[in-house]
Amino acid sequence: MEPVTLRTAQLELSLPTEADVDAILDACQDAGIQRYTPVPVPYERSHAEGFVAQVPRDWEAGKNLTWAIREQGALVGTIGMYRVDGMGNGEIGFWMAPWARGDGRLAEAANAVIDWGFAADGLDLTRIEWRAVVGNLASARVARALGFRYEGLLRQALANAKYRDDGWIAALLRTDERMPQPWPVLDG
To answer: Transmembrane segments in this chain: where (predicted)?
Structure first.
């Protein structure tokens, strides 16, 4: 699959490049990114370089599609559609650099990826999943605001370099209204 660039009112989503290595390296020093995403710990320059080199190969394979989120040309995070299975399913994943959190950037980027994921001239997906380590309230709040429906707990399902954790799972169907829904883990 050829890489696709997505644009929103404020953002450009495009392949990460060698020019992004320093920004990726800096962002991935964040304790939250290291705790809640599957990045290596400690995160070193070689990891950022390897990530940037791998993304085009993943696009070619059509299974894991990652974009750099850019605001005014500067990388502020990454987002992707992962585990694309060719049967109408994918999984959204993302992180934002600590200095770029808030102000709705992530929701803006995620809506663009979701729109493209469901579009007939995009991935033509039926279902997009979201998963997060139990306790990642910031990610859960974003997913709920995007209209994802909470579906439950995945026991010991999520692993990164240091942890194996229970995970929350939610999903959005192409036919769902993209309005916030009640989530028991957030609403009480």
So the answer is: none
Fold classification of 6-187 (topology level):
Aminopeptidase (3.40.630)
Give bridge partners of residue 158 from the DSSP assignment: 165
What are the strands, taking DSSP E only, across the chain?
Answer: 6-7, 11-14, 65-71, 74-82, 89-96, 127-133, 149-159, 164-173
Q: How far is CA 95 from CA 7, 33, 173, in A?
A: 18, 7, 22
Q: Are 18 and 52 in contact (CB under 8 A)?
A: yes
Q: What is the pLDDT of residues 18-76, one digit of tens each?
A: 999 999 999 999 999 999 999 999 999 999 999 999 999 999 999 999 999 999 999 99
Which residue reads 């799972």 in tokens? 169
Euclidean distance between the first and the last CA atom of the chain, given in angstroms as a whole number:
42
Question: For the chain, what are the domain ranges?
Answer: 6-187
Predicted TM-score of the model (pTM):
0.96
Q: How many CB atoms lie under 10 A from the CB of residue 25? A: 17
Nearest to residue 131, comparing CAs of 113, 151, 117?
Answer: 151
Q: Are 150 and 185 in contact (CB under 8 A)?
A: yes
Instruction: Locate 179 and state its tokens.
Output: 């309005």
